[in-house]
Amino acid sequence: MNAISHTAAIPRPIPDERELTAPAVQARKAGTRRRLALGRAIPFGALIGPALLLVIWSVGSVAGLIDPRTLPAPWSVVGTAIDLIAAGKLQDHLMTSAWRAAQGLVFGILIGAVLALISGLSRLGEAIIDGPVQIKRAIPTLALIPLLMLWFGIGEGMKVTTIALAVLIPIYIQTHSSLRSIDNRYVELAQTLRIGYGEFIREVILPGALPGFFLGLRFAVTYAWLSLVVVEQVNATSGIGYMIDLARNYGQTDIVIVGLAIYALLGLASDGIVCFFQERSLSWRRTLAD
After folding, report:
1. How far, in Å, CA of 149 to CA of 157, rounded?
2. By three-state DSSP, how is residue 82 classified?
């Protein structure tokens, strides 16, 4: 009895992976991956949250828990959107807003990326550029609207400039951070191989900066629509923001909800487009989500 107890108390050695059979090794690896990884992506998972909100909204409207004067029922909002489309108003406002946002995005992305490259690849460039950009980052873009109105008036120039200023900050910050985070071993390898500066930029710098650039781009498109909401309520005669502000004056809550839904759809669609190109451009990376 004592011998048996003594034998049972001796810990069994952990088998080396080389001693295991191939199925056992695969089972261990698969089990580890199942425990640590996120698992398979849920089909249409991004739609689950909005669908739940829509269900709660509909149930609350049917049950009379939501005052229609405060928040109209979903079908009332859909009917209003159909009427606006039939009258051609929604399309006109949408095209105006999309054009303003597109101009601000293009200018902001170009300026932010160029400044990030100059500052990230040069100590002198950083000394000249980084300080003013950090000062701008500390000042909310919307707080600059009164000054921009004095400089550019209340026309399209002020609106596009406001959007561009909001966009360039996340592009600059994230791209600059990625440039400075490139592993120095790649730089040493490039020096060892004696590749030219142009090839160094193309093969090392740009791929290394892409993750940060796309992250900044996702923030940028969000800031673009956020800025657009505000600038379109400053002496505008068209645009989704103008439509919302006009509806607010007349107490037309359903039109306000339609405008907000358009902004949400535009924001989600633009973010989805950025994510699509991000996945294609960074397909060489292996991440936790894979």
Report:
1. 9
2. helix
